[in-house]
Structure prediction request, 332 residues.
Amino acid sequence: MTNHTERDDISGTETTGHEWDGLKELDTPLPRWWLYIFYATIAVAVVYWVLMPAWPIGNSFTPGTLHFSDRRNVATDVATLQQARAPMYERLSHATPADIERDPQLQQFARAAGESAFGDHCRTCHGAGGGGQPGYPNLTDDVWLWGGSVGDIEHTIRVGIRSSSPETRMSMMPAFGRLQMLTPAQISDSTEYVISLGPAAARLHPDNAAAARGSAIYGVQCAACHGATGAGDRTMGAPSLRDDVWLYGGSREEIRKQIELGRGGVMPTWESTLDPGTIRALAFYVHELGGGEPDAPASPAASIPTNGAPAASNGAAVAPTQSPAQPSGATR
Prediction:
């Protein structure tokens, strides 16, 4: 059988025999330089397979003769960085808040280290700027359940809230509705009274008659934790009801739901995850977000702890006496 080869009339190049709408494909050979580069890439790939990790094998891979590992290199770089920063973390772990304020270098390091730790461990719940979200407190205002000094914040970070730490901050808001401690009508009256205690009254306009009935219920069920006037009690983490800051929302429905269900979140303990220097840097950073309170003045007789416990503003270990778990009528 004769193999007829067609050539292009203009270029004289053989065609492939393919034609689309009168256009014929030329069988033009690839440029030599392109072929040489292509062959070179194949050779480089083969060499790479031999030298570097390349081929997956089950749950493993070929390690390559150079045994290169990005993961190992990153771990080495992190360890080197941690070693370089260790002296500053050591200084920070033994410094009081007053010491940090007096030392611009230590203050700058604490701020930078705290911001980094916050981004790694706290941002998911409290937000990038610490503004919080429903169920997670705003760290930029001046409202604190357990105190807003550097020492108070550090202790909360260290032991957590309702966490697995034996020293954890502990409070419990009873579920007055779910546990049938109050009837739906009593919960409604209590809601109106709580609304009437603070600025929320101006926007929610409580029912005065219901609030009057709720006052008696509040005196029996809630005053032990929140106080007779609703000012709250930091020793047990009971929030003030006289402002308009609400952890789970400040609508009438959300306030009622908190009384009915007794919601309470968990903040993990960080003392087994973060070293004392990082915890102090984190406390300093949170304190500087905008709502921090001053620490108590340093005592002349104060001493630096030697057991690795974080130091408070007076140099003593930050380990305040933990109040026993008590019911807290927290609506926020």
About this structure: Residues 100 and 107 are 5 Å apart (CA to CA).
